[in-house]
Specification:
alpha/beta; 11 helices
Length: 299
């Protein structure tokens, strides 16, 4: 049975996408989706897969909730089996697993800390033990700790932000690269903040800028192996990271600064990752695709 979840038609749901949110805050990052009000919208029931990822195996870091959950659901609809690496959000991860299985695919859950190279090696090893191969690597984990001044960014925060947001890109790629074949794809989650900046997120934004440079450089290094490397730069998206990093009053108006005057929902990002993972983007590498509600950025 699929878990209880607010499914609506695409048209109905678009009318019900919230413009503002109730004040709320969670004390621990990266946050828990099942505690959010309203729940992020991770699935578009009218999206029908066409086998774009049939038989593919994908690792999705941070796949338990938010953008990662939406990617997992979208990939399942397109025929991929999933391995999800997550930190501690077991209840969220179990819901995502049920949703992937509802759409007829397998989902392996692996709990641990991606800041540790040995765990990244474990993620790849367990994926290979269960599925026998690896085709797509989605690097999607992140934390953010808003600060009014750079003087308030402690050494511990700086190290945590970098060790979470960028170091696992190297660890996971090093662990997975020997098993990727021509036609494989690596896709990172960057951010609009890498291009537009964010005054409260100096350290977070700089890690996202590092992801952009990582994407462009690794694409050049791996193009001769037939492996494509790209990224997606979301704008403000309603995910657990938001309620676990910003104060409750800030959450009330989250996303209103975009030209579309609202935050995005995770389901609105999934097709972009599907495109980059599939043969539809066979002539695309080293690129960052922007899904941000109309924010104009210099690329």
């Amino acid at each position: 049975m699929i878990p209880m979840y607010p499914y609506y038609s695409y048209e109905t749901r678009c009318r019900q996408v919230p413009i503002t949110f109730p004040p709320q805050h969670q004390d621990v990052q990266p946050g828990l989706e099942y505690l959010m009000n309203p729940a992020p919208i991770s699935d578009n029931p009218k999206y029908k897969g066409s086998g774009k990822l049939e038989g593919k195996i994908a690792i999705i870091t941070g796949g338990d909730s938010g953008i990662g959950r939406a990617i997992s659901i979208g990939f399942a609809k397109e025929g991929a089996d999933i391995a999800i690496a997550y930190l501690y959000e077991r209840e969220d991860a179990e819901v995502t697993k049920q949703m992937v299985e509802y759409y007829g695919r397998r989902c392996l859950l692996i709990e641990g800390d991606l800041r540790k190279p040995v765990f990244c090696q474990q993620v790849v090893r367990e994926t290979l033990e269960v599925y026998g191969k690896l085709d797509v690597l989605i690097l999607n984990q992140a934390v953010q700790f808003p600060q009014e001044s750079i003087l308030d960014i402690s050494e511990e925060q700086l190290e945590d932000t970098y060790r979470t947001n960028i170091f696992p890109h190297f660890y996971m790629t090093k662990a997975g690269f020997p098993y990727l074949k021509p036609g494989s794809s690596i896709i990172s989650t960057a951010s609009v903040t890498a291009y537009a900046g964010a005054p409260l997120l100096v350290d977070y934004s700089s890690t996202k800028g590092a992801i952009v440079s990582f994407t462009r450089s690794l694409a050049l290094q791996l193009v001769g192996h037939g492996i494509r490397v790209n990224a997606v730069a979301p704008g403000p998206i309603w995910t657990p990271l938001i309620v676990s990093s910003y104060p409750a009053d800030y959450v009330k108006t989250f996303g209103l600064e975009t030209p579309m005057k609202r935050a995005g929902q995770p389901f609105e990002l999934a097709p972009t990752y599907i495109y980059l993972a599939s043969d539809d983007s066979s002539f695309v590498t080293g690129q960052v695709l922007h899904v941000n509600g109309g924010i104009i950025t210099e690329t």
